[in-house]
Amino acid sequence: MTIATIPPNSDIDSPWKPAIATVSLGAADLHPITAKLDAAAHCGQQGLELFHDDLVQLARTLRGQATDSLPRTDRDYEIDAAHLLRDLCAERDLHILALQPFRHYEGLIDPERHMERIDELKHWARLCTIMGDSLFILIPSSFLDPSEIIGDRDRLAADLAEAADVAFPVRIAYEALAWGTYINTWEDCWDVIQKANRPNLGICLDTFNIAARLWADPTSPMGRLPASADQDLQDSMARLVREIDPDRVLMVQLADGERVDPQAPFLHASGMPTLLAWSRNARLFPYEEERGGYLPIREVTETCITRIGYTGWVSMEVFSRTLGDDNPAVPVEHASRAGQSWQRVLKALGEGLQKGPTQVSME
To answer: Which of 248, 247, 341, 243 has its CA nearest to residue 301?
Structure first.
């Protein structure tokens, strides 16, 4: 493929800053974080969602290079890795904006597991303060079996309030995963956030998760839910404009979904929700229709950004089966695609501002 270098100042007049998730630049055990940082900086990204797997992999590398015989824990090496990542990013003029994903936290029935997660959260908060002064921790909605978590909204809100208090002043972003056991729409997510009512607690809006839940069905011949899904999505986007406070949006994540064969084996993995299997294997960067992107991403993106008046970080978060390729070119290939996608996003947002709100229609 042709690798495009995106000038760092190509979106200098934009009220939004481009970022990318490190997981979108290659698998942690195959592609070193330094290669990912170089690729991101080279292709115009300014910020990073740091996946914990990448930090852990760097910590393992540091452990392997250690020459002293002092007893040290995995967390000690993660702290070393956090210091190193802060310096590596500063050298490349990259900003770490989030550490994620802090999975399967809220609603745990087992109190011991809950306390273990709280202890881990304290460690994550320390890592965040090392890597910068404005990082947040992203908590995706849990998709554990109902035998392990409860869906009571008051309990979920209490757990999030506790997380915000424990992490303070580090911020917490809560995100609804389309396959979440109890919280799987932005409306569910926002309701819990409001109930928790903490100043350092906000929402993460993800175009893939919103569109996947309300509109898509990768196992159907048409790749989507029935025609009524158009109106459902339009109604949801209208509610989002009315209800979401843009100051409480900590990040907007962008991704499209690939139109795949409904019989693709990865869609039918045993014990895995279909939307989760699709997400892990077949996300695309926005406006990659030439690669099979087909979700109503433009409408969702415009709503989550321009229609609510959001300014700040906009991050590409793409999971794909292509990230597991051990080709060393993967980081720069994906960073280049992300850079090209970002320019398409900016163009579309500019057109949307000129035309006004769009109506959802995917005929």
So the answer is: 341
Residues 256 and 245: their CA atoms lie apart, in Å, by 24
Helices (H) and strands (E) in the chain, counts: 11, 10
Please check the confidence at residue 360 and state whether its pLDDT lies above 60.
no
Q: What is the pTM of this model?
A: 0.92
With a cut of 60, say whether residue 285 has pLDDT above it.
yes
Strands of 133-276 (E only): list them: 136-140, 171-175, 201-206, 249-254, 256-257
Q: What is the pLDDT of residues 324-353, one digit of tens each?
A: 999 999 999 999 999 999 999 999 998 755
Identity of the residue numbered 279: S
Amino acid at 227: A
Sequence-distant (6+) residues with CB within 8 A of 85 are: 33, 50, 55, 58, 96, 131
**Residues present in the chain in total:** 363
CB count in 10 Å sphere of residue 42: 18
- pLDDT tens per residue, range 149-194: 999 999 999 999 999 999 999 999 999 999 999 999 999 999 999 9
What pLDDT shows up at residue 332?
A: 97
Q: Give the count of alpha carbons within 13 A of 163, CB side only.
A: 32
| Continuous H helices in the chain | 33-42, 52-65, 74-91, 111-131, 153-167, 186-196, 207-214, 228-243, 274-282, 297-302, 330-355
Contacts of 250 (CB under 8 A, 6+ apart): 98, 136, 171, 173, 202, 203, 204, 312
Q: Distance between CA atoms of 141 and 183, rounded to whole angstroms?
A: 6
For residue 316, report the phi and psi dihedrals to the nearest 5 degrees: -80, 120
Q: Strand 249-254 to strand 256-257: parallel, antiparallel, or no bridges (unpaired)? A: unpaired
At residue 322, the 3 state secondary structure works out as helix
For residue 8, pLDDT beyond 70: no
